[in-house]
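Usage example:
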Amino acid sequence: DVKVTQSSRYLVKRTGEKVFLECVQDMDHENMFWYRQDPGLGLRLIYFSYDVKMKEKGDIPEGYSVSREKKERFSLILESASTNQTSMYLCASSSANRTAGSGANVLTFGAGSRLTVL
Amino acid sequence: AQKITQTQPGMFVQEKEAVTLDCTYDTSDQSYGLFWYKQPSSGEMIFLIYQGSYDEQNATEGRYSLNFQKARKSTNLVISASQLGDSAMYFCAMREFYAGGTSYGKLTFGQGTILTVHP
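Running the assembly step on the lines above writes:
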């Protein structure tokens, strides 16, 4: 019954390595999101995508890039990992744009990927 | 400026009692949605309840209800008859609808409140 799958639950990388975090959803959702979660800061949006090959910066895009070549897959890339990118990364998806008053359009989250950069 | 503020880093409640988790928000939009998610120690984010800014009634879902005070820009989560399984991190989040009334669906989250239920 898994709907949003993140490829790795735990990763340990070294400073300077290139890191790929993969996310796949099977709900045919148009929107996909990458958040990072840090204690005391809640979840902060890194990037999101509302269509294949489309991407928008979130609140903290520095040091990250994303790729969405297929509707079901949204990848987060750390070109050169740094220790301050040690965090929990959460992928989410939701249906297409909705107008105000049309209901919740809930984000469905993956289980998270805990990245440690040494 | 912080858009979503949860001022209670941690809360404790006795089993079977009710507890209120606070959340205030800041927006100039007239149309927005407010969400609460639960995150147990396992890490998954579980959607609990939603309130639209135009909804006249406070939202309820089983033991969860919202005390939505639009003028005060607050949407507090009330959990009635607490259970041990309610021990978790709780996040409040907001979706704003931009000019034209559409949204890409992104949510802005608060810092979270850790709830501990004692037997």
